Amino acid sequence: MSNQEPVADSTLCARAPETPPSATEPVAPDVALSSVYRVKSLDDIDALNEGRLSGFFYARDGHPNGVQLADKMARLERGEAGVVCASGMAAIAASMLATLEQGDHVAVSDGLYGKTTTLAARELARFGVDHSGFDPKRLETLEAAITPRTRLIVAETLSNPLLRVCDVERVGEAARTAGVPFLIDHTFAPLLCRPLELGATIVVHSLTKLIGGHSDVTLGAAVGPRPLIDRIKNVASTFGQTGPAFDCWLALRGMSTVSLRVDRTSQTALELANRLESHAKVRRVYYPGLASHPDAELARRVFDHGFGAMIAFDVGGRDQADHLIKALREIPFAPSLGDVQTTISHPCSTSHRGQDPTTLERLGITPGLVRLSVGLEAADDLWNDLGQALHSLGS
Ligand SMILES: *Cc1c(COP(=O)(O)O)cnc(C)c1O
Known about the structure:
Layout: H1 9-14, H2 42-49, H3 64-76, E1 81-85, H4 88-99, E2 105-109, H5 114-126, E3 130-134, H6 139-145, E4 150-156, H7 168-178, E5 182-185, H8 195-198, E6 202-206, E7 220-224, H9 226-238, H10 245-255, H11 258-277, E8 284-286, H12 296-302, E9 310-314, H13 318-327, E10 343-345, H14 357-363, E11 369-373, H15 379-391
Parallel strand pairs: 2-3, 2-4, 4-5, 5-6
Antiparallel strand pairs: 1-7, 6-7, 8-9, 9-11, 10-11
Helix pairs in contact: 3-10, 4-9, 13-15
The structure holds pyridoxal-5'-phosphate (PLP).
């Protein structure tokens, strides 16, 4: 591949450039955008396919940035292996597709992320997998939900939007007794605890949120025992659910500051939650670090790094929530979370849109409820904006 020999312009332009010689190595990871790799021989392609040789050959099956991110996630969660998928939903769907078959049953915790509930209730149902719900606060409801056909239990460490805390240890014990894998969605609580050490089998994240941290990537990850993750990897490749290299590179960059962001946003969120709780226009505040939260005691037991960046509060009704959102000068209404800047969301219109009103009422997800995802701004600046918007609400 010498570039000395004269070739036609078309040949010169079409061929891949040579890698410049360098006695040094980059400090930041490279972005490996290649969708395919040059393989030396037929013996090598056999060995690569059979796992006797390690290396990449087709990006949907694996690429360096995906492996770097998956390995970091596995180490962060103290799991044997990890896999990166194209979104949080892709990680959840691939985990379900890898563990469930026609005729199986899945037990899902009440109040899961809307699309996870839809996935179990509508999509898996089309493939002959049925589901039932349980209240993670009442283990007897989990025991009642488990049948001889149950092959997966699904819960979230911190629920959206009321921030109910899952007793991962007790659910994990029940899962082990029943011999059923326990998948936990840890998107709302990265670094606050380690679900695998507490008894979960698979931990999944939407990296789109706090770990990515800058609202510029859509990715997910699953971490767990190697045989299970290998199976999820295969399913993800076959169903086309794997993630692109540049997004993995961005998520790795985001991840490098996640521990600072978790500490700082937890401090600011606690301060804001306290101020909101004593504000006349706020009916109720949900923050697991407040003594008034129904799971305050459990939260203190489960979390060892603060209580996270998310606060939900009720301002009375949909009109008040709409007024508040319009009155905020700086904090944008954005139906996501985990950004470096604080955002506000309205669960009834976004994450829980389309769910039936009686279920929402039973879960306590009211039309006046808004949810803050606290970012890195100074608490006083955030309070100035929230304070003036709350002040403008009619009584
Ligand atoms: C956002 C979210 C998901 C889905 O993640 P995507 O990256 O948007 O697919 C799953 N679970 C929870 C708790 C989430 O907040």
